[in-house]
Write a structure and sequence with these properties.
Shape: globular
Radius of gyration: 18 Å
CATH topology: Rossmann fold
CATH class: Alpha Beta
Distance between the termini: 26 Å
Largest sheet: 8 strands, mixed
CATH architecture: 3-Layer(aba) Sandwich
Helix content: 40-55%
CATH superfamily: Alpha/Beta hydrolase fold, catalytic domain
Length: 303
């Protein structure tokens, strides 16, 4: 469903709305799931959503701004990622069309519109960065924080290998469905979990569904600018007071494990859980391990 949040249109799926016959759904503790760079709300594994609902939670997913069925920002122009990367390496200021703080305000706006005073905030990759921003900006709204395969953004941390970065920023051969799907199959096979590889047929089917729902690469590039411009978050993570769980794959080729270690070290009391064989994706076996840590984490904190 489409809602108005933070002054823009955001696509949301809320298990309380999906199951109106469940009269207790609206009173359950809410979990807001925030996806990563260029990823849509449909990228959350049903396995994870169903387990959270079965554990007694109201699960809210959203398409971040500029992606999926949420409002796009094409009027803000096409970003120059090469120039932005050069400025980032030189320590020069990057002026993105919008910031991760704006995206955090979107998330808080979703909670406002849905009438949710406080929620557990769970983010993956860029979504973890946004979740951190939510916890910094509005601690009174955050029951708990969970940051999955994400980073503090500290420049001193080990970066992805150049071949991974090249594939990440490379464009498909054309906008034809087959070329776009082929491109993303290559990308996800490169950054995926070496210990739990997803069969190509399954990966191709899932990517095809996502591309058919929405394909908006310019939005992904603007989101990437917001990530590059967010250079102060690492120093601000010490402000986070919410109970925090950090989950990270030990075999992540895009955001190396030390990024998760760094996030946990900067947040007082944060718990770090490393998952062997997990890369930068969410296959069933790592998701099961994520749930083993995530559900007790959520249940331990009273709203």
């Amino acid at each position: 469903m489409k809602i108005r949040a933070n002054g823009i249109d955001i696509e949301v799926e809320d298990t309380a709305e999906i199951n109106p016959q469940d009269t207790d759904a609206y009173t359950r503790p809410a979990v807001l799931l925030i996806m990563g760079l260029g990823m849509q709300l449909v990228a959350w594994p049903p396995q994870l959503i169903e387990a959270l609902v079965d554990a007694g939670f109201r699960v809210i997913r959203m398409d971040n701004r500029d992606i999926g069925l949420s409002q796009h920002f094409d009027h803000m122009g096409k970003p120059n990622l090469i120039l932005a990367a050069v400025r980032y390496k030189l320590g020069l200021r990057i002026r993105p069309p919008y910031t991760l703080e704006d995206m955090a305000r979107d998330a808080l706006g979703v909670l406002d519109t849905l009438g949710v005073a406080r929620a557990h905030i769970v983010g993956v990759s860029m979504g973890g960065m946004i979740a951190q921003r939510v916890a910094i900006a509005a601690p009174q709204r955050v029951i708990s924080l969970t940051s999955i395969m994400s980073t503090s953004g500290a420049k001193s941390l080990k970066q992805a290998q150049p071949d991974v970065v090249r594939i990440l920023i490379k464009r498909p051969a054309s906008v034809a469905l087959q070329d776009v799907v082929d491109h993303y199959v290559t990308l996800y096979q490169t950054i995926g979990s070496p210990g739990f590889p997803t069969p190509e047929s399954e990966l191709r089917e899932r990517i095809t569904r996502g591309v058919q729902r929405c394909y908006h690469p310019e939005g992904t590039r603007r989101q990437m600018l917001a990530i590059l411009a967010d250079i102060t978050r690492a120093a601000q993570l010490s402000r986070i007071s919410s109970p925090t769980l950090v989950l990270h794959g030990r075999a992540d080729p895009l955001v190396p494990f030390e990024h998760g270690d760094d996030v946990a070290s900067r947040i007082s009391g944060a718990r770090l859980v490393g998952i062997d064989g997990m890369g930068h994706d969410l296959p069933p076996e790592p998701v099961a391990q994520i749930l083993d840590a995530l559900i007790p984490h959520l249940q331990a904190v009273k709203a």
